[in-house]
UniProtKB/TrEMBL annotation:
UniProt xrefs under PANTHER family: DAMAGE-CONTROL PHOSPHATASE ARMT1
Gene Ontology CC annotation, any one: nucleus
Domain text: Subfamily III proteins have a conserved RTxK motif about 40-50 residues from the C-terminus; the threonine may be replaced by serine or cysteine.
GO terms for biological process, alphabetical: DNA damage response
Name used for this protein in its record: Sugar phosphate phosphatase
Domain of life of the organism encoding this protein: Eukaryota
Key words of the record: Hydrolase, Manganese, Metal-binding
Family: Belongs to the damage-control phosphatase family. Sugar phosphate phosphatase III subfamily.
Signal peptide (residue range): none
Cofactor: Mn(2+); Ni(2+)
Catalytic function, reaction form: beta-D-fructose 1-phosphate + H2O = D-fructose + phosphate; beta-D-fructose 6-phosphate = dihydroxyacetone + D-glyceraldehyde 3-phosphate
Species this protein is from: Neosartorya fischeri (strain ATCC 1020 / DSM 3700 / CBS 544.65 / FGSC A1164 / JCM 1740 / NRRL 181 / WB 181)
Function, in words: Metal-dependent phosphatase that shows phosphatase activity against several substrates, including fructose-1-phosphate and fructose-6-phosphate. Its preference for fructose-1-phosphate, a strong glycating agent that causes DNA damage rather than a canonical yeast metabolite, suggests a damage-control function in hexose phosphate metabolism.
Keyword Manganese: yes
């Protein structure tokens, strides 16, 4: 068995050829479906009556190029150097591909292969005249978000009734209530799905202090297999006197999850935990549903639509409150090219030193979702009892980066499990590594970077 004290260079990344892996399943069944979905989406957009004839004509060439990628995946063709599209990063992609050596769609490092696929899609759009800024996943994002109507309306109601209660921030005697609320808001951001949560539904501010609140918390935390919430809270309490407390949130999915992230950001500001929030988006459509800059205004457009969300009482109170945080500069957004490269975050100090410095200077960096977790841990097949700090490599010990990963488990890597006995119990409870992949388990992993 590999040692739990291995360093990153000794740990092999998961490959799409690994038997029984999520990587293999994704490469063999999901990637071609994603490409076909994009082909269908472009065809639908190009078929609209008001589309310029030149744009429509160009869509045919784009669909042909996408079909070539799909065919390559289905026939397990070799990964080949990306043709130039006028962007500066192509050289880096091809350099990394050369370093990997001969590989194919179902026999390549999963992290690289998946990133390569999304960059290949964007290369086709970049090379066009009329489709360069087109979000091939917008239709899908919008549809999914609208389906979460009940959860959005419910969460808006809970937020306005409980979190926005100014008594919470003002009454120093409610330290336990503050901590329980921090845990619950963090779990909303973790799971990205209000229907998974039990606490805020029925409890008043006062109820947060009683046994019922603590029991609800304990029940909801059962499937968090690495839970450093207490450590994060202790750090935040110990450092609350710092004058500048900018929290960075490296975002994951648009739609409902992004809504929960914006609520989490608002909570961190309104509770006095953060002095400002910086949201990190992707520069272009990435991993189907990742947040890109245009998704910010799209979120508000949906929330303000009574057709999408007909129950308005709490949303109409909440939306101006959220907009004000953006307009005042309390919440800002940024996109760094590094987030859409094939590199793991272990390469950040050398490949994106300015970004690394920004994260070092942040009060806390919250990494959302599975892809960010894979990149934090180099997508490595670490023993599960490896500490989160060790798996972070250059972003771990003595890095100066205070990192918090909120991730539901949907891939092949998971570290930070406190003991092998716990791993054994999880394997018995969810056989075949299901607890690492089925999205029903999660981690709240924190490292102070000291």
């Amino acid at each position: 068995m590999p040692s739990a004290t291995m360093n990153a260079e000794e740990v092999r990344a998961v490959w799409t050829s690994d038997k029984g892996s999520m990587a293999k399943q994704t490469a063999e069944t999901r990637w071609a479906r994603i490409i076909q979905g994009i082909i269908d989406d472009i065809g639908e957009t190009a078929g609209a009556e008001d589309v310029d004839c030149q744009k429509r004509a160009e869509s045919i060439a784009i669909q042909i190029a996408l079909k070539d990628i799909k065919k390559g995946i289905e026939q397990n063709k070799p990964l080949t150097p990306l043709p130039d599209d006028g962007k500066l990063d192509i050289q880096e992609w091809n350099k990394q591909l050369a370093a990997i050596g001969e590989c194919s769609w179902t026999n390549c490092p999963w992290l690289f292969g998946e990133c390569y696929m999304y960059r290949s899609i964007q290369r086709i759009l970049n090379s066009s005249k009329h489709w360069q800024n087109y979000d091939v996943f917008k239709r899908q994002k919008d549809s999914t978000f609208v389906k979460s109507r009940v959860a959005v309306e419910e969460l808006a109601s809970r937020y306005m009734q409980i979190v926005a209660d100014t008594r919470l921030a003002q009454d120093e005697s409610k330290e336990e209530a503050k901590k329980l609320l921090f845990i619950e808001m963090t779990e909303i951001a973790l799971w990205g799905n209000a229907t998974d949560l039990s606490l805020l539904a029925n409890l008043t501010l006062e109820d947060l202090q009683n046994l019922q609140g603590r029991e609800a918390i304990q029940k909801s935390q059962r499937n968090i297999v690495d839970n450093d919430t207490d450590d994060v809270w202790a750090y935040l309490q110990r450092t609350a006197g710092q004058t500048s407390r900018q929290i960075a949130i490296v975002l994951d999915n648009a739609g409902f999850e992004f809504f929960t992230d914006v609520l989490y950001a608002a909570y961190l500001l309104e509770a006095g935990i953060a002095t400002s929030i910086r949201l990190h988006t992707k520069e272009f459509p990435w991993f189907v549903s990742d947040v890109i800059p245009s998704d910010v205004e799209s979120l508000f457009a949906h929330l303000e639509s009574s057709e999408c969300f007909p129950v308005r009482k709490y949303l109409d109170q909440l939306i101006p409150r959220l907009r004000k945080l953006f307009q005042s500069g309390a919440i800002t957004t940024t996109s760094d090219p590094f987030w859409t490269t094939p590199f793991s975050f272990h390469e950040m100090p050398s490949k994106a030193p300015a970004l690394f410095k920004e994260l070092q200077n942040s009060y806390l960096v919250i990494f959302k979702g599975d892809l960010n977790y894979r990149k934090l841990t180099r997508d490595g097949l670490w023993p599960h009892t490896t500490t989160y700090e060790t798996a972070l490599g250059p972003l771990g010990k003595e890095s100066g980066v205070k990192s918090l990963a909120l991730r539901t488990n949907k891939s092949d890597v998971c570290v930070g499990i406190p003991a092998q006995s716990k791993v054994d119990a999880l394997n018995e409870e969810a056989p075949g590594g299901a607890w690492i992949r089925n999205g029903k388990y999660a981690v709240v992993s924190f490292n102070e970077g000291q």
